[in-house]
Design goal:
single chain, mainly alpha, 25 helices
Length: 833
């Protein structure tokens, strides 16, 4: 009886138990008690996580059962798909090799910091490090599994769109059995695996870690939640590096492939003779599957941790765990509603009807979640104020998605206004795009502000945190619609690489790609909105854990104001580092592609005479290339260059994001750190919204002109003589500027503001001993010294430099082009220069 009694007391130990202790036994419903055990709090989340992983396993095997290219007579699709998968896995292996070293070092530092002074038990350092490692491992695993399945799904999506060949009596191919709905179904399956593996690992990891910590002798729920912040820190660290490295990879390959392939040589975007086209397709996966998955994994677990930390009683701790479990069930049912009857007419498709194919699934999931959330709030003692906050959060996410769609879809005026500026050149296209991006901040921020004020009025800081949980509760299907995009994009690229696939199939894959572009843009808006709410919640949790006096946090305080200015600068520095990195990495790709086009006589066909350059000339003139004359470029070289450069360039922004809150907090004090976090959230939200929406608008303005939708011949891709129009050239320039905006710098800022807040929450127990500024300033010297040493090392190795490698390489490339028989016109060489 003794051990059982002690265990019983242990699991009920909590600093908040007093809130429920005064309630007489037997007067409340069983679930409405405020003295819950750890299992009563976390078990629904654990069950929900296991359900999500079971659904992931079922979907994975269902996807593996779909026909591949070989099954429908398209073996070339499988060949190129295998090359994309091999490149994606090579990137992840290289990235994780370096990240494992970083995680071990940072874990050692955390262990040392929390072991110097016992906060709760003598094992605080070990437990914090355990939580940090678990968060990092699960975040990395989600990216790996999502990438693996996405690169399996692309070939199967192409095969589903093509179907088996249908021949007439003479044996002539007259079509295929594939359809748009078949392609959508397969691509969405691949996206669903990414969505539910993130949710499943997030819930099992977060709730499981909480249980492990809470049953440890000497730790109650309050103390366990403080250490659980280490789990979020681990997830955030991996997310930042995955997003930054993936964004640099995808845009370096994209810019290199476009500039030399499309602009210089005049070949199609996904022509297999372009050495960078495989790297470009790999980049779609590492940026928008692994990167976005890690980003939202961080938001998902961060919102749960923040809400539970801000809770004042056990029922409030339980609510985010319970709501997340409800969201899993709702999202699983929602995925069953995804389908379409559209035929697939390429870029002429009705995007509204295509969007409805996915939106009806997310809407069904949202409605089901609201019903299940109401049941949870009722069972937990009538928490209807929190329910309204959940409703606000869910509605906020949907409205932000629609606002983003308005500013980035070519169905609406903002993108059409950029398209119209194409008639007057690239400068006006760039100016108009920046204006569209900046004005898009207005409605998005107004919606966020209204949501924050409404939730704060109802439930205070906890209301804002639970709104973030509500926004992210149905993440399984929300992320599935987002991860569907790169799968569809890859499927279109594979269809274009195989010359045997007819135009009808490419129209179907183009329709899926058009839908994917829209879901990608709305997904980025959703990610920004959730990042802001999560970061604000983490900031409030930091203030609570550091035990700061609110009266000392006035904006007029010079220490708080200095921190705000410093924090507002960080997103600009971060965006600048990632933008410059894309330029440097793209330069290396450009030179390699040019070298293969002009200076590789070893790249020859089976006939022993036809070179890659000859194939490029034939492809640019629209001539068919016989199989015995076809040449395969050295794509592996471009994949290796992109991998190496992206991993190298991720060091500076990733390290600075982690070190900044450490040296500000320990050197100056927690009040200055609060100012830094507030400034970073405000500035980072604006820059992220502007960059993501401007980039998306530029991208679709180019697609509008390329698709030939405008009645004005001057605003189409080709003029009467078959030459590229000035409007199209201007739109390509705008799109090239927008690529790193929307796919590298903008999305990475979401993680920056969350990571700084999560780092601060993790070290909050160490900062609560600061009674005045600079009190223990010497603790700030190690991170500050590391900041300085790292900067010096990066400058010395040429990673941080003001030299212009892309300009230098372009000059060298022009000399090579001039000295070799030309593949391009003088006008196009001038355009690139």
């Amino acid at each position: 009886k003794g051990p059982r009694l002690r265990a019983h007391r242990l699991v009920r130990a909590s600093g908040r138990a007093a809130a429920g202790a005064a309630q007489p036994a037997g007067t409340m419903a069983p679930f409405a008690r405020n003295d819950k055990t750890v299992l009563e709090i976390a078990l629904p989340a654990l069950v929900g996580g296991v359900l999500a992983l079971a659904f992931t396993t079922y979907t994975f095997f269902s996807l593996k059962g779909e026909p591949t290219g070989k099954d429908v007579g398209r073996p070339l699709v499988d060949k190129y798909g295998a090359m994309i998968k091999e490149g994606a896995m090579a990137f992840l292996k290289e990235e994780y090799k370096w990240l494992s070293v970083f995680v071990v070092l940072l874990g050692g530092i955390l262990c040392a910091l929390f072991s110097v002074e016992d906060q709760h038990t003598k094992l605080d350092g070990v437990l914090t490090t355990f939580a940090f490692f678990l968060g990092a491992i699960l975040s990395a695993s989600a990216g790996w599994l999502g990438m693996m399945v996405a690169t399996d799904g692309n070939t199967r999506t192409t095969a589903a769109c093509a179907g088996k060949e249908v021949k007439d009596a003479q044996g002539k191919v007259t079509g295929g059995t594939g359809s748009l709905n078949d392609g959508l179904r397969v691509a969405f399956k691949a996206g669903s695996v990414m969505g539910f593996v993130v949710v499943g690992l997030g819930l099992v990891g977060c709730a499981g870690c909480f249980c492990v910590l809470a049953i440890h002798n000497g730790l109650g729920k309050t103390e366990s939640l403080q250490i659980l912040a280490g789990f979020g820190f681990g997830a955030s660290s991996i997310a930042l590096f995955a997003r930054v490295a993936g964004g640099i990879y995808t845009k370096a390959a994209d810019v290199g492939a476009d500039l030399v392939g499309k602009v210089e040589a005049g070949i199609d975007e996904d022509d297999p003779h372009n050495p960078a086209v495989i790297a470009d397709n790999v980049g779609d996966n590492v940026g928008d599957v692994a990167g976005m998955g890690a980003d939202l994994f961080e938001s998902y677990v961060g919102s749960i941790i923040a809400a539970a930390t801000l809770a004042k009683r056990d029922n409030e701790i339980a609510l985010p765990f319970w709501l997340s479990a409800c969201g899993v069930v709702a999202a699983m049912i929602g995925t069953m509603a995804v389908s379409t009857n559209e035929k697939g007419e390429g870029w002429n498709s009705n995007l509204g009807a295509l969007m409805w194919a996915l939106e009806k699934g997310t809407m069904l999931a949202g409605v089901l979640f609201l019903g299940l959330a109401a049941a949870c709030c009722h069972l937990l003692g009538g928490m209807w104020g929190a329910y309204i906050c959940v409703l606000i959060g869910l509605a906020c996410g949907m409205v932000i998605g629609k606002i983003t769609e308005y500013f980035t879809s070519f169905d609406f005026a903002p993108v059409k206004s950029i398209k119209a500026r194409g008639a007057t050149g690239p400068a006006t296209v760039t100016i108009q795009g920046l204006g569209v991006g900046m004005i898009s901040c207005v409605p998005t921020i107004v919606v966020l502000v209204c949501a924050i004020l409404g939730c704060a009025a109802i439930k205070g800081e906890y209301g804002v945190a639970i709104a973030a949980v509500g926004m992210l509760a149905t993440l399984g299907i929300t992320l599935a619609t987002d991860a569907y995009g790169p799968v569809a994009d890859n499927a279109g690229g594979l269809a274009e690489m195989d010359p045997a696939i007819p135009d009808e199939v490419r129209c179907i894959t183009d329709s899926l790609d058009a839908l994917g572009n829209t879901t990608a843009a709305t997904g980025k808006g959703f990610a920004i909105g959730s990042a802001v709410l999560t970061s604000l919640s983490l900031l409030a949790a930091f203030k609570e854990q550091a035990q700061l006096d609110v009266s000392l946090l006035a904006v007029t305080d010079p220490y708080v104001l200095s921190g705000m200015l410093f924090g507002a600068m960080l997103p600009y520095m971060f965006a600048a580092l990632t933008m410059i990195s894309v330029g440097k990495a793209a330069a290396e790709i450009i030179m390699e592609v040019r070298d293969q086009f002009h200076n590789r006589p070893d790249l020859v066909a089976q006939d022993g005479k036809t070179t890659l350059k000859d194939c490029i000339i034939m492809a640019s003139n629209g001539e068919p290339i016989p199989p015995h004359m076809d040449v395969i470029p050295d794509s592996n070289k471009c994949v290796a260059i992109s991998t190496k450069s992206s991993v190298r360039e991720m060091i500076a922004p990733g390290a600075y994001a982690i070190l900044a809150p450490l040296f500000v907090g320990f050197l100056v004090g927690p009040r200055c750190l609060v100012g830094m976090l507030a400034g970073g959230i405000g500035s980072g939200a604006m820059v992220a919204i502007m960059m993501s929406n401007a980039g998306g608008a530029w991208d679709n303005a180019k697609k509008y002109i390329s698709g030939g939708f405008d009645p004005d011949p001057a605003l189409r891709k080709k003029d009467g003589n078959g030459n590229s129009t000035p409007a199209h050239d201007a739109a390509v320039t705008g799109d090239t500027v927008g690529d790193p905006f929307k796919d590298t710098s903008g999305p990475a800022l979401n993680i920056l503001i969350k990571l700084m807040s999560m780092v601060s929450l993790t070290i909050a127990p160490l900062l609560k001993t600061y009674d005045k500024h600079w009190e223990f300033y010497y603790w700030g010297f190690p991170p500050l010294g590391l900041f300085v040493v790292l900067t010096a090392a990066l400058v010395y190795t040429g990673i941080l430099t003001w030299e212009d490698p892309i300009g230098k390489m372009l000059d060298e490339g022009e000399k090579k082009v001039e000295s070799a028989p030309s593949v391009v016109s003088n006008k196009e060489v001038e355009l690139v220069a």
